[in-house]
Specification:
The complex is a heterotrimer of chains A (about 400), B (about 250) and C (about 350). Helix content of chain A is about 65%, strand content about 5%. With about 400 residues, chain A is mainly α. In chain A, the strands form three sheets. In chain A, strands 1-6 form a two-stranded antiparallel ribbon. In chain A, strands 2-3 form a two-stranded antiparallel sheet. In chain A, strands 4-5 form a two-stranded antiparallel sheet. Chain A is globular, with a radius of gyration of 22 Å. Chain B is α/β, with parallel strands linked by helices and about 250 residues long. Chain B has two domains: about 140 residues, P-loop containing nucleotide triphosphate hydrolases (Rossmann fold); about 80 residues, 3-Layer(aba) Sandwich (Rossmann fold), CATH 3.40.50.300. Chain B has nine helices and ten strands. A six-stranded mixed β-sheet of chain B has the order 6-7-8-3-9-10, with helices on both faces. A four-stranded antiparallel β-sheet of chain B has the order 2-1-4-5, covered by helices on one side. In chain B, α3 crosses α4 and α3 packs parallel to α5. The longest helix of chain B has 15 residues. The two termini of chain B are about 30 Å apart. The mean pLDDT of chain B is about 85. Chain C is mainly alpha-helical and about 350 residues long. Chain C has a single domain, classed as ABC transporter involved in vitamin B12 uptake, BtuC (Orthogonal Bundle). Helix content of chain C is about 70%, strand content about 5%. In chain C, a hairpin with a 5-residue loop joins β1 and β2. Classes of the chains: A mainly alpha (about 400), B alpha/beta (about 250), C mainly alpha (about 350). Chains in contact: A-B, A-C.
Chain lengths: ~400, ~250, ~350
């Protein structure tokens, strides 16, 4: 369907189903129960799943297919955010122009950065992208303050022109909306002890993400996608085969930059502000992590990786010692104390420690990410049924050099 | 008709003169072998032809196009393909993909943003790739990853990749190095069959058996210069060649 | 003229730090072929060695002085550091005062151990993995190390003063016969620069004049050949990693008084140091040192009021800008050799 083969169509619909039903699926525990803190079915977090999913899908088109490891993609997300807020300041609170301009500006900026950075490959490429991102970050904090509002971050104001809309509504800044439907608007459904929230912004993100996902599948299955994998596999052979690898990598770079811009635009649509910290290189590192964790070069991996990390971030940083003591209430006091003492550094503010350890474990033991893990388990079961299965070498994440 | 004409090519690396005033031409539809002892400059010469190296002086003409200064992919696009000494293939892609990529390059040119086409439905290219795999006897392995092939199969795959582009000129760098006798004979048969398609070939080879079964003309390179040229049987008896190549021993 | 001199001086201390970190980075890269994103963390750990030692030395016990009363009328509690009790008040106070220089001795075994553990425990498994994997795993390690430090020392910078003797500034201008107070330069920064020069000299001498160093240099030039000679190059490379860790650590120890140590200082310096390495040429030791000082001084020039007025924000981006230009025009960096990191 839609020009996808059978396998991809079922994958697409599976993802669609999960995304549509997420408000149910992510709220499995009744409100007020012990386990309710593990629920993720509230709009803010669900939006983040999808937005970072888009970011990672785009990053994967570059890194997963071509092997070029960019350490500067957060810059495109940041540029997209700024462009989005400016559209809301100048034009209208309708999110569509904002999202559109986010993609356009991120695309243009990534064209410039990619054109220069792609003259080098391997680690030099990584350093060049890192240098560009750090430059953008520093400039956003200093010289570009008129555009970025420096450390405070760019926000909407009551006296913004908004030539196609209104500057203020009943003395307040009008809400971001999609042709009149406010992004904040939610419909709450109470069933027994459960409370499900259906948020307009979330479903807008869902539509956008499904389109982004669809486009990514098409790219993966296209001759263009095959050429990108050829870049990663053997750039030398590619050039002696009559293919100019430069425009291919540049196109992949710009496409992934536009995905980053789209993610930035959606962030603004959900919450109309933008700050330079979104461009920092640690933010770029985060999207690398999501992609690797899920499985670079796979279709669905990056989305899973993004969801997993955002969920863990949310859960781990919420847990505190009191909650731990609640859990261990059944244990003897001394043992409970000990367990809390051991776990304490990894939770709450220590979430980054957990993240770092997770990052290392994945790279060391599971370079193919979650998807490789799933596959390994799958193969384990298969091997039991057919013993002499010929396992083919898995493509690995390797840098383009 | 001449398809390739090399005139006065020099190439030095630091103080080392790798190619010394090389003049060379290839007739269309023939097989020309280049032989010579190790370090004679054979690979350097081939690299100058495909744009990997740029000659210091001299000209390389392909038909009436000058190859000097052209990028490798441009040279390929005008019809020159090369098989490398160590197979250059797309190791982590399947055999099908390995052949479809050059076939697409031939059809669509050096770059095309066909991001929404479905490669699985491109019957033209798929059929061609299947046909090529059949030709080299790898069709039953078409969904395997190229890296898992044996060395001999990798060479065959690379040859099929080049052939899928229907090149006007095919450059082969020791296509049978490291192969068993049986494999070598298979490859000779394969190369002879390609000969029927009228592809001009330049072969660098150590194995005299291969040279004499394939070549219409042999060029002998020693210390960067051509010391003899002629029909295989003439070269066999040329004392200069025996001197340079084998230190006087008989071929 | 005086302004230029001042900027050169100002650039020296930062340049020294860049040079020291970049030296270790490029040493590790040249010998082990590993791209170590955790190298900045080693610098940071060094700085916290200084913090730790100064805290250890200041450990005190409390005595109650009945003769004196505090403002509430209670007997005064007097904290006496153990070192003062053991060595007498004057020597003890001097030891506490000199805790940063003393931390040099304290940090060497610690840094060597940290380096050893890192190499044996993690890095050695990544020799044959792609550079992207190396970058990612060391990036993860860097996060872990900085979070551990944050856990123990908190998120705020910890002021760690230099000995009182070095508290003032040298009026450099007056020494050269200019008006006083034009070119003044804090003593500690002079110390830092000299210290860096000594360390750099020592590393070069070590590599130049010892058999060990000779093997390592040969290994940097061509690893496989040295391996073929039957020399156990891996063992030496482990030692090199530890050495690089010590160099980065010492750079951090001495930097503590210049910039109060905080947990993210490693990352801040790492990105710049990587740029320094790339500008100097991957795997080139003199290149790393040269580029370190060059970029440090350049950065300080770009911070001059006149320059900033002309090109706003240039001070923030000059290093990256230079890196981009260098990478595009001289892909091997200022002094890089052919064949390093190329396919």
């Amino acid at each position: 369907m839609f020009g996808l083969n059978k396998k991809d169509t079922s994958l697409f619909f599976l993802v669609l189903l999960l995304v549509v039903l997420a408000p149910f699926l992510l709220n499995p525990f009744p409100e007020g129960s012990e386990l309710a803190q593990f629920n993720a079915g509230y709009p803010d977090l669900m939006q983040r799943f999808l937005i970072f999913g888009i970011f990672a899908i785009g990053f994967n088109i570059l890194f997963g297919l071509t092997g070029y490891l960019s350490f500067g993609h957060a810059a495109f997300l940041g540029v997209g955010s700024y462009a989005g807020v400016w559209m809301m300041k100048l034009l209208t609170m309708n999110v569509i122009p904002a999202i559109f301009m986010s993609v356009v500006f991120a695309g243009l900026f990534s064209l410039l950065v990619g054109y220069i950075s792609l003259r080098r490959s391997g680690i030099y490429f990584s350093i060049l992208t890192l240098a560009f991102a750090q430059m953008s970050f520093s400039l956003a904090y200093s010289v570009l303050t008129p555009i970025t509002n420096g450390e405070t971050g760019l926000q909407l104001a009551l006296d913004d022109p908004r030539i196609l809309g209104v500057s203020s509504e009943n003395g307040a800044i009008p809400a971001a909306n999609f042709f009149g439907i406010p992004m904040r608007e939610s419909f709450e459904l109470s069933m027994g002890g459960w409370l499900f929230t259906f948020n307009a912004g979330y479903y807008l993100c869902a539509v956008v993400m499904m389109i982004a996902f669809y486009v990514a599948i098409r790219i993966f299955r296209s001759p263009f996608g095959m050429m990108l994998r050829a870049v990663k596999s053997n750039q030398q052979r590619m050039n002696f085969t009559g293919l100019n690898s430069r425009p291919y990598t540049l196109a992949a770079f710009v496409i992934s930059g536009m995905y980053a811009g789209l993610a930035g635009g959606l962030m603004v649509a959900m919450d109309p502000l933008a700050g330079a910290e979104r461009m920092q290189w640690t933010a770029s590192g985060e999207v690398v992590l999501m992609t690797i964790l899920g499985g670079a070069g796979t279709l669905i991996g990056p989305v899973l990786g993004a969801g997993f990390i955002k969920y863990c971030e949310n859960i781990f940083s919420k847990i505190n010692d009191n909650i731990l003591y609640d859990w261990f209430a059944a244990l003897p006091q001394g043992l409970a104390d000990f367990l809390v003492f051991v776990i304490h550094p990894f939770i709450g503010k220590g979430w980054h420690l957990t993240l770092g350890i997770m990052f290392m474990l994945i790279v060391i033991f599971l370079p193919g990410g979650i998807m490789e893990g799933v596959e390994r388990i799958g193969r384990l079961f298969k091997r039991k049924s057919s013993k002499d299965e010929n396992s083919t070498a898995r493509p690995k994440a390797a840098p383009a050099e | 008709m001449e398809i390739l004409r090399v005139e006065g090519v020099n190439k030095s690396f630091g103080g080392l003169r790798a190619l010394n005033d090389v003049n060379f031409s290839v007739e269309e539809g023939t097989v020309q072998a280049i032989i010579g002892p190790n370090g004679a400059g054979k690979s350097t010469f081939l690299n100058c032809l495909i744009g990997r190296l740029v000659p210091d002086t001299g000209s390389v003409m392909f038909g009436d196009i000058s190859l000097t200064g052209m990028k490798p992919y441009e040279i390929n696009q005008i019809g020159i393909s090369r098989v490398f000494q160590t197979p250059e293939i797309f190791g982590d892609l399947t055999l099908m993909e390995n052949i479809m990529i050059p076939a697409l390059a031939k059809r669509d040119g050096e770059f095309k943003l066909h991001a929404f086409a479905d490669v699985g439905k491109d019957t033209e290219v798929r059929d061609k790739a299947l046909h090529m795999l059949e030709d080299v006897g790898l069709v039953e392995k078409k969904d395997m990853v190229a890296d898992s092939l044996s060395r001999g199969d990798k060479r065959r795959l690379e040859l099929a990749m080049c052939l899928s582009q229907d090149p006007k000129l095919l450059l082969l760098d020791e296509p049978t190095a490291g192969m068993s006798r049986a494999d070598t004979n298979n490859t000779i048969d394969l190369l002879k069959r390609i000969g029927d398609r009228g592809i001009t070939k330049v072969v660098i080879e150590h194995d005299m058996h291969v040279v004499f079964s394939l070549a219409d003309k042999v060029t002998v390179l020693a210390q960067g210069a051509i010391i003899a040229e002629g029909k295989p049987e003439d070269i066999k008896g040329d004392p200069r060649v025996q001197e340079a190549y084998l230190g006087g021993a008989h071929l | 003229m005086d302004a230029i001199l001042l900027q050169i001086l100002n650039g020296l201390d930062k340049g020294s730090a860049y040079a020291l970190i970049a030296l270790g980075l490029t040493l590790i890269f040249g010998t082990l072929g590993v791209v170590n994103f955790a190298h900045g963390a080693l610098f940071m750990i060094g700085a916290f060695c200084a913090v730790t030692l100064s805290r250890l030395l200041s450990l005190s016990f409390v005595t109650i002085d009945e003769t004196q009363k505090d403002f509430l009328g209670n007997p005064l509690k007097v904290e006496t550091p153990y070192v003062e009790a053991w060595f007498g008040p004057e020597t003890g106070a001097a030891i506490i005062d000199w805790s940063v220089p003393l931390a040099i001795l304290f940090s060497i075994p610690i840094m060597a151990l940290v380096g050893l553990l890192m190499e044996r425990g993690l890095i050695k498994y990544f020799y044959k993995r792609p550079h992207a994997d190396q970058i990612l795993v060391t990036f993860g390690l860097a996060i872990v190390l900085q979070e551990i430090i944050k856990y123990f020392f908190g998120a705020n910078p910890i002021p760690t003063p230099a000995p009182d003797v070095f508290a003032g500034s040298l009026d450099f201008g007056a020494m050269l016969g200019m008006d006083p107070n034009i070119i003044i330069y804090p003593y500690w920064r002079i110390v830092y620069f000299l210290f860096a020069a000594v360390i750099i000299g020592a590393v070069f001498a070590f590599l130049q004049f010892t058999t060990f160093g000779m093997v390592v240099r040969a290994g940097m030039a061509d690893r496989s050949t040295v391996g073929l000679l039957g020399i156990n190059i891996d063992k030496r490379f482990t030692v090199m990693f530890a050495l690089a860790a010590v160099v980065a650590g010492l750079a951090g120890v001495m930097y503590a008084p210049i910039n109060s140590p905080n947990y993210h200082m490693g990352m801040d310096f790492l990105v710049l140091s990587f740029v320094v390495v790339v500008v100097g040429g991957m795997g080139s030791l003199p290149g790393a040192v040269l580029a370190g000082f060059l970029l440090g001084i350049l950065e300080s020039f770009a911070s001059m009021a006149q320059v900033v007025a002309l090109l706003p924000g240039i001070n923030q981006i000059i290093i990256y800008l230079v890196a981009i230009v260098i990478l595009l025009t001289r892909p091997r960096g200022l002094m890089g050799r052919k064949g390093v990191m190329e396919s």
